[in-house]
């Protein structure tokens, strides 16, 4: 007779499993009606790319109103980013191309965000003096953007070697690290965009150094590369 799973053990595993992010749960609920339609995860990824690009353009226009518009678009873009992966999982429309298309759009939108903020602030406030060095606001945006690009590249390399678990974000109560971007409207509402840019130009390179160390650690461990079939659901 086939052994059946112990209900108590199954319940214990479910209880110990980390809660799925709240925005991912909401995204799944919203895209469930789309699973038997012609809409694919790549369509939703492209939608996210368009919204994220408009977000960067809005920040780049400069000024209080455009900054607030950019913040709203950023929140929408960040949420839509979860819909493609959820649709891929519930519809079985997963692919290696879709996975890397999603990552490429993530990288582009995030880099464009910081560059756009730098351009927008530079048009109205000029430069900043950090540690006695005068740096144009556009330069701060590029510093943060390049650091983010490096982070995305190295995280892709880590995922190639260790899978999705190797790049899992820290989460508490259904909130992940990246969910801090949902607070961006508060930053722009209270005119904190300049401080955000300065913090990003310092924090992003520091985090990039940590990811570099993590990548070196993974390489030294010489983990075997993932098989192509293991990309399902990893969007």
Instruction: Figure out the total of helices.
Output: 8
Q: Quick one: biggest sheet?
A: 2 strands, antiparallel
Element order, helices and strands?
HHHHHEEHEEHH
Low-confidence stretches: 1-17
Mean model confidence by pLDDT = 83
Look at the helices and sheets and give the structural class: mainly alpha
Q: Please tell me how large the radius of gyration is.
A: 20 Å
Count every beta strand, where a strand is a DSSP E run of 2 or more residues: 4
> What would the principal axes of the Cα set say about the shape?
globular
Helix content: 55-70%
Termini separation: 38 Å
Physical arrangement of strands within the biggest beta sheet: 1-2
% residues in beta strands? 5-15%
Describe this structure in words.
The protein has 235 residues and is mainly alpha-helical. It is 68% helix and 5% strand. The chain has helices spanning 7-16, 22-31, 41-61, 64-91, 96-125, 137-162, 184-189, 193-221, and strands at 127-130, 133-136, 171-172, 175-176. It has a two-stranded antiparallel ribbon. A two-stranded antiparallel sheet has the order 3-4. A hairpin with a 2-residue loop joins strand 3 and strand 4 (175-176). Helix 6 (137-162) packs parallel to helix 8. The longest helix has 30 residues, at 96-125.
